[in-house]
Design goal:
The chain is α+β, with helices and mostly antiparallel strands. 38% of the residues lie in helices and 17% in strands. The protein is built from 8 helices and 11 strands. It has a 7-stranded antiparallel sheet with strand order 2-1-4-3-11-10-9, sandwiched between helices. Strands 5-6 form a two-stranded antiparallel ribbon. It has a two-stranded antiparallel sheet with strand order 7-8. The N and C termini lie far apart (105 Å).
């Protein structure tokens, strides 16, 4: 009897040990599943938050988890493309350090092609709507500003919740109006109409679909980038909407800014704070520039600023590329992946240093 009882105890112990082992294995598997699910949920939430909202409703990616200044640009994020952690300050050529907080930044003498202050200028970053500087450059190289354009089904390619110039299919505008709609209110709709129109001109084929024409235009953007020496930059959209493959560097954007500023007709557009536009087809709209540096009533106003372009998105954070004329020379200040208000503060820091130069 005792032997039988002892045998039952041994068998019970073996069963319990086996069960615990299996539970342990299941617990580990369960944890892995939770992590995977958590990661997938994070991606879903991130994808939803990419659809950008007005600046008053958003905070910087650096300070919360989103970003915008009425510009909408994004798509699903590839974590392998994330840029490295930024240093703590910008360094000037004369050895000073400036407390610039953005991930990367440059003060660039466009006239002489000299970097005067920089921070992580070679880091890959997302451009947001600053990519529209290249869009404008390609446009004026191929199509006269007085060309009348009829808006078409390229608007179907504009991502939901994009910043808009409020053009619609069938509206007629000049190329200049489209450029103003792209550069001032940061209209993604205007950018796509520019791209489709110019893409067909480049291809010398009016029968191209909107998508084919835009692809042709984007290829021209990348060809121009290589021509200018922007060796580390790749464009995938005409509006700068987030794409894991659409990456630039601050140093490359300085090169682009210098080229952009050679065109007085473009500078006349980017220096406008607010304008009333009347389309060729009769519609009217008021556009307000997303660049606070141009607003005399804004605390960040800089009277010397002549543009150039803001950018903000889930990927890019808050960006601002601004242009100046000082002592007979042109300068560009590039601030990439900054904070919501921080990009303006960083710009002022670099601008103040620029003013000390002879």
């Amino acid at each position: 009897m005792r032997v039988k009882h002892l045998t039952l105890l041994i068998l019970s112990s073996i069963f319990l040990l086996t069960a615990c082992g299996n539970d342990s294995q299941l617990y580990t598997t369960s944890n892995e599943s939770e992590e995977t699910l958590s990661s997938a949920s994070s991606l879903t939430e991130e994808s939803a938050s990419e659809q950008q909202t007005p600046e008053s409703e958003r905070s910087s990616k650096n300070n919360s988890n989103s970003s915008s200044d009425s510009e909408k640009e994004s798509s699903s994020k590839d974590s392998s493309s994330e840029a490295p952690t930024a240093a703590t300050a910008a360094t000037t050529t004369d050895g000073q350090t400036l407390p610039v907080e953005a991930q990367s930044a440059i003060l660039y003498n466009c006239t002489d092609g000299i970097i005067l202050a920089s921070k992580n200028e070679k880091n890959l970053v997302y451009p947001g709507s600053t990519a529209k500087l290249m869009t404008a450059l390609i446009a004026i190289e191929h199509v006269p500003l007085d060309t009348i354009v009829t808006v078409g089904d390229e608007l179907d390619l504009v991502k939901p919740h994009s910043s808009l110039a409020y053009i619609q299919k069938g509206h007629q505008l000049t190329m200049q109006m489209l450029l103003e709609g792209s550069l001032i209110p940061s209209g993604n709709d205007a950018s796509y109409t520019i791209a489709a129109t110019v893409g067909r001109v480049i291809a010398e084929d009016d029968t191209l679909s909107a998508e084919e024409a835009v692809d042709t235009f984007v290829q021209a953007m990348n060809d121009k980038a290589q021509e200018l020496g922007m060796r580390h930059s790749t464009f995938t959209t005409p509006d700068g909407f987030d794409d894991s493959k659409q990456l630039v560097t601050a140093s490359d954007m300085a090169i682009l800014s210098a080229e952009f500023m050679k065109h007085s007709e473009l500078l006349e557009m980017t220096r406008i704070h607010r304008m009333d536009a009347t389309f060729v087809s009769g519609e009217t709209v008021t556009w307000t520039n997303t660049n606070h540096l141009l607003d005399p009533e804004n605390e960040y106003y800089i009277s010397d600023c002549i543009g150039l372009k803001t950018g903000s998105s889930e990927y890019s954070g808050y960006c601002i590329i601004s242009g100046y004329e000082h002592n007979g020379k042109q300068y560009a200040i590039i601030v990439m992946n900054g904070a919501r208000d921080g990009r303006w503060n960083d710009t002022h820091i670099l601008y103040d240093y620029m003013k000390t130069l002879s």
